Amino acid sequence: MYYSDSHVHTFFSPDSKTHPREHIEQALRLGMTSLCFTDHMDFDYPPQYQISFDLDPKAYFPFIENLRREYEGKLQIRTGVEIGLENSCRQRIIRYIQSSPWDFVIGSIHLADRLDPYFADYFAGRTAREAYLSYFETMLSCLETFDPVFDVLGHMDYIFRCGDRSVTDAWHEWPDLMDAILHILLDKGIGLEINTGGIKSGLPFQHPHDHLLARYRELGGELITLGSDAHSPDHLGDYFVETGERLKSLGFCYYAVFSKRKPSFYPL
Ligand SMILES: [Zn+2]
Ligand SMILES: [Zn+2]
Asked: 83 alpha carbon to ligand 1 midpoint, in Å?
């Protein structure tokens, strides 16, 4: 049995060309028992990037439902979303989440200062450290404002995939800010996603960094999910075995898989 993947993109996201069936077949080859699709929804994505991360539940749900029926008894298939958190879109985000029967909702920070750190303009005109810090300040502000309408915080230190990578350890740089973020997650009952996409991008750690995970555990945190952030089937379940070992060494015993917004727990 292989760990279930709870962060997977398909051609319902503009940055993936993968048919959901390709992921399903790969999940079966790997020996997964369940898989959750989490395509992108980002309201008001800045027009200068000339791409739109809109996910239409009216098209998405029936499509995944057909596959769910087809693979019944072989693989549990879940319908989730990765939604970009931004205070300026808060009401629309809440309505969007509440209007569909999602299995799982990942809340991710994809924009700060109305810019996407994936692109160079995010880092222009300021030091790398200031740019990285701004991402986490935006995260704190969103977490303070939002009710727990999403299940986990996605790829917490994703920003370190971007820019010149001169900073990669947020716990070392800004321990008080990181503590504030982790405390809000715990207080609001929001879990923390373990996202192995960082390793794929060349970082020597998953998101979040071991130091943040150790601190989260120290504060009593234990609600974690596992996601590869695969945009193509060859990355499905990437680095899950070694990440599972690392999580165990940090004191985690199990990970959660969501269905109808409720977690079930499985041993690591
Ligand atoms: Zn993301
Ligand atoms: Zn993603």
From this structure: 8
To the nearest 10°, report the CA torsion of 257, 263, 267, 268: 50
Q: Chunked in runs of 10, what are the mean pLDDT values of the chain (268 residues)?
A: 94 97 98 97 96 97 98 98 97 97 98 96 96 98 95 98 95 98 98 95 94 98 98 97 97 98 97
Distance (Å) from CA 229 to ligand 2 centroid: 5
Q: Which residue has the tokens 């945009």?
A: 231
Q: Near ion ligand 1, which residues have CB within 5 Å?
A: 108
Q: 5-267, superfamily in CATH?
A: Metal-dependent hydrolases (3.20.20.140)
Tell me the CA–centroid distance for residue 152 and ligand 1, in Å. 12
Residue boundaries of the structural domains of the chain: 5-267
